[in-house]
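tool_call: predict_structure(chain=1)
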Amino acid sequence: RKILARMVSHSELRKLFCSADAVCFDVDSTVIREEGIDELAKVCGVEAAVSEMTRRAMGGAVPFKAALTERLALIQPSREQVQRLIAEHPPHLTPGIRELVNRLQERNVQVFLISGGFRSIVEHVASKLNIPSTNVFANRLKFYFNGEYAGFDEMQPTAESGGKGKVIKLLKEKFQFQKIVMIGDGVTDMEACPPADVFIGFGGNVIRQQVKDNTEWYITDFVELLGELE
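tool_result:
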């Protein structure tokens, strides 16, 4: 990784956060307490094998697309199973996220959800936070007419390693945002900065040591960011 020529001071990072045009959140283990793919594996009865793969993928040990393909091949989720997951085991919002998103939106900051998880689950989360579905970037599952699993849309930027950075670059080009903040728990989130201008590591649900050790600004509670916006 390239080392920044000059370390940005903490007060500068805070200023950047408070003056951002857009804030992008990772979803699994950041905005929600669970890992969506592990919850789907539970519903489909292959939890243990899949959560081990997730752990390796989140630590950066396996290329993202390979890990996603491998896990989905094991899970083979049907449309009905995905719907059942949302209906019977809806994701739990992380404490403080609703208030933080509200506060950002009140300040006319655009809020985006960028996830390596699945669009059907992420859109459900977005609706709880009053984030329009046009501000959701996530992977799309594909199903046959009978509802059986048919793969995933490999053309989505979020299906690739480095996909979150690609989405942020796209947002800058499309909306002319000057300052984008990325917030997340994983290595894929940290690697999205740059093109994000600031990365804030989040350890409120799970602490990924590699992220904690390599992040200038690391928080374990969204209350800290709410305080910055006072």
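agent: The chain has a mean pLDDT of 85. Proceeding to next step.
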